[in-house]
Amino acid sequence: MNLERLLQLGYSAERAAAFAYRGHARSLKDPEEKTHIARIEAEEWEHRDNLLRMLNRLHLRPSRWLEWKYACIGRLISASCHIIGYFAPMYFAGRLESGNVNEYLHMIELARGTAIADEIPCLLEMARVEKQHELYFLARIEAHWLLPWFRPWFRWGPGVSFNPMSAGEAEEPSTV
Ligand SMILES: [Fe+2]
Ligand SMILES: [Fe+2]
Asked: Which of 39, 102, 145, 158 has the smallest number of Cβ neighbours within 10 A?
């Protein structure tokens, strides 16, 4: 996928994530978890703002189709959080975040030498924040009895990630 399409996809997917986390936070009982997931939602909106700035700098517009598609996906996930229990929303949020890290790392590679090469530190910061999200959801489910059933099927869990970023790298800014 080229940089332009990846930026459009990320822009729309960030809104899906924000919608999903809004529903997820509302479906939870624990006040600390509610607050933390509301903060994750706010971070996804920030990511969307950053991606819009990058699209604008490249004289591109968001894709109408992706905006519609991901708004539907986000709302569907948001509603489903109220009926599918505690484990599945936490597990699939972590699994999705694990892939999001790679999308930002991929954007960094594609942004080199382009008009938005100076945005690479911002893209790296977003990759780090997505890794922090992944680790937060991992911590929520790593002791759950369902995890041994989900991990082999969905290929994500303790010690199995879709991205190469370490927990240390997620906490400390590294250079690119
Ligand atoms: Fe994000
Ligand atoms: Fe995230």
From this structure: 145
DSSP 80-141: HTTTSTTHHHHHHHHHHHHHHHHHHHHHHHHHTTSTTGGGHHHHHHHHHHHHHHHHHHHHHH
CA of residue 67 to ligand 1 center, whole Å: 15
**Rounded distance from Cα 175 to ligand 2 centre (Å):** 21
The full set of domains in the chain, from first to last, is 3-171 (1.20.1260)
